[in-house]
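Residues determine shape. Next comes a sample protein:
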Amino acid sequence: MVKRCFAGVALVPIVSVVLTGCASKPYSPLAATEPVDSIPASVEPPPEIRVLPHEPPVVVGLDNIDNGVSTIPITTNVPASKKNSPFGSGWIPLRTWTDRCGLGAPERVINAGITSYRITTRGGICKLTMGSRLAQWNGLSVWLGFAPQVMGGEFRIHALDAEKTLQPLAEMNRAEPPTGRTVVLDPGHGGADSGTRSARHEFEKHFTLDWAFRTERLLTNAGWKVFLTRRSDVDVALPDRVSFADQVHADLFISLHFNSTFPQTRPSGIETYCLTPWKMPSTLARGYADDERALFPNNAFDVANMEWAMRMHRSLLKETGAHDDGIKRARFMSVLRYQNRPSILVEGGFLSNARDAANIGSGEYRQALATAIANALGGK
């Protein structure tokens, strides 16, 4: 792997959103816009953050989404596949998971009084730490729904993590390659929705679009049929971004964003998100309601979502050398909730961090982000 240098800082490779829309009609992927190395500044202020009230949810459909802010739909008739986990329910001994997966015995590691377990799987080395939701998979940061605990003298993990997080990653190397070759790239924000901005008043909406154009060219050359939810500086409603993926029969949906924690400037790195499974708490809620009873259409792809998130996150960190901010779960992202295909959302860096912002402003870095996505999709 090649070490890359962005913004004058050598970055050593590490192995470890809100959303946008949809074009009104199909178009040729060959009409890709040339990427640029400089992004025009905008005088538009970023939109205010809208926060969901914490109130009892009611049943709503996709048409009721108000550009991403909606009451969470609750499914009362839960499919049998959702009721019966292969690992049961509640807390299970770690050894139960490893035995059922045909893995070797977990190796206990005690460091500074903290107990962890290492498990060798077909997909790599997993490290779980008592009392911490942050797991490591081949050195990559993966957030669990529940922190492992010692109960009844045994190290236990939650059955939902066993089924929805650990099992997909353990079996990744055995997973068959994707047969579909149609992908929708969703450049975040656009038009009056500028997204976040850097200290130099550069707007997220411009960077995400350029990232999408660069990725489109690479994937088209690799034989993928690529569609963008927007091709210019326009605001596309979230429901339209979702329905567009249905219209083009997409096999995969990838939403592209850059992050911000203003006024805090220290956080940095790349985050990769997929929808939170039913009955699991999210990694991040950002003040939105996080009702664990909610079952969304995209939850039918929980396993594939995690596999794609890992492929993408691993490739992004390898190509850019950025800080690993983890694979995370969230359910407030409407552009993911209602997708009928595997879907992920990538935050390619923090515009609130000076070094990240300098990198994001570089065409070379955005090209590295594009190359990473192409590599993750087998587009080398």
Observations:
- Residues 302-320 form the longest helix (19 residues).
